[in-house]
Predict the structure of diphosphomevalonate decarboxylase.
Amino acid sequence: MNRAARAIAHSNIALSKYWGKRPDAYNSPAVPSLSVTLEGLATHTRVEFRDDIDADRLVVNGREERGRGIERAAALLDGLRREAGITARASIDSVNDFPTASGLASSASGFAALAVAAVGAAGVDWDLARTSELARLGSTSASRSVFGGFVELDAGASRAHPLFPRDHLPLVVLVCVADEGPKAVASHDGMRITMQKSPYARAWLEEAPRLHARLRDALRARDFAGVGELAEASALAMHASAMAAGIVYWNAVTLDALATVRALRAEGTLVYATMDAGPHVKVLVRPEDVAHVRPRMAASRGVVRIIEAKPGGNAELVPSS
């Protein structure tokens, strides 16, 4: 069997945060989350199943991955091999057009692209829902990046589902890059340590679903301010629980960018911030306010660059070479 396929998938940011896994299930989220897929941050992945190799091989941005990286990819591929009845190993070549392993959800787009490309290369006719379940075997948040627009992943769920289309809420995300390098603590380790050691872990597990439900209602009503306020509250609660366990993803750039967001809001601009497991600040802004907000965020001390993104589409196959 020698078949190849290529796919593209986009990163996502969780508006209501997923942080923590259920101990009784593999990569199953402990709390619900709601994300938006971003067209400005993409992973391109080519998968080729080959009979002439005896182990899966993964190259990311030109560098061969070993250890946990290839283990996660192999877990995903093993799930597909079991279902599709194939035994061939895979050669994987993946490229991100944004910083990798730095807190910008490159694992989400990476494993979503891997799942779509692998399904295509295997020649099986799976819909996006089933592919989302496969992507979760590599990364829980990857199940959301299989879909475009606004996406929900329920607590304990094995797959995500689309909630609203990409044009449901006029929204631009300004990703304020605080550091181009990888983060010191991987997300899965940060979650595990938070759940084990944080005195606020239980409070997070109780509050996160409430924030999620309110944010979903605000999004349904196309209430930009409500979505922004609740997204910021969810991010702050998540990071508070992590910090109490000694897991600190923020740096001075993060704090200054947050101060700039607060200053803009005090001046009357509807602008809000969210942060995932990294130092970068993602600024939620209405399209008509981008011209005013972007230069202010770019001038915030230490911001390396700004990636401007709108809600993006589904992960999909692209012509393979």
